[in-house]
Amino acid sequence: MPILSAKETEEMKLPSPGSKEYWEDSKWAYEHMNEISEKYPNQWVVIFNKKVIGAGRSGSEAEQIATEKVSDQEFVILFAEKGIRVY
Amino acid sequence: MSIKIDLEFETKLDSDLLSVGISIRLIRLIASLRLKTAEAWTDPYKAIIDTGSPITLIPEHVWEKVSVKWISPGSIQLTGLGSGGVSGKLAEVVMVFLDKKGLSPPISLKAFLVDSDTVPLIIGFEDVLTDIKMVCDYKSKIAFFQIPSSP
Q: Strands B45-49 and B122-123: what pairing?
């Protein structure tokens, strides 16, 4: 069964569901995806404090920029797809 | 008992098509999740839920932080629609789904760990949509996972 049993997780410290600010940034990002995708087409984009604070061609590049700017605070990272993409 | 985890819709317009008078919405159904690392859990990530994908795909910048148990000894090539193929390996990872109210029980799943960042995180069927009830009603803007509590 993929869902781990209570016994299998009893020594696992579970994480938080994310800060209030993280979910506000998430909401902001999806409300502004048209503009974000136009400005950063097909790039990994980092959102913090309701603004784009970095973007990169790879996820690791974008995450590195974010970590330098906001340290260990939670940020939203997403791939700003432009056009119809099928995986 | 089960736990409900809300999903998000990403909706945007294809601006190139719009400029020639064609309105096409580009819609994605998105889950938020964290993956288990050696010591704790990753930061939250966004993943596309793709009922057309038999398996979950995890890009390199995500899985390189994660605690993995390799299943396939060598690299495998995945092919399909899109920009050709991607290479990677199969492994077991542990994740939790999140929404602003809470999180799911940990889920152990077989996933394809991609050798690059050329694809976003994609949630496919194996071990996830096979075991979790999903409701997706775009018209009402309601979408969620209904996940059984830990047995």
A: parallel
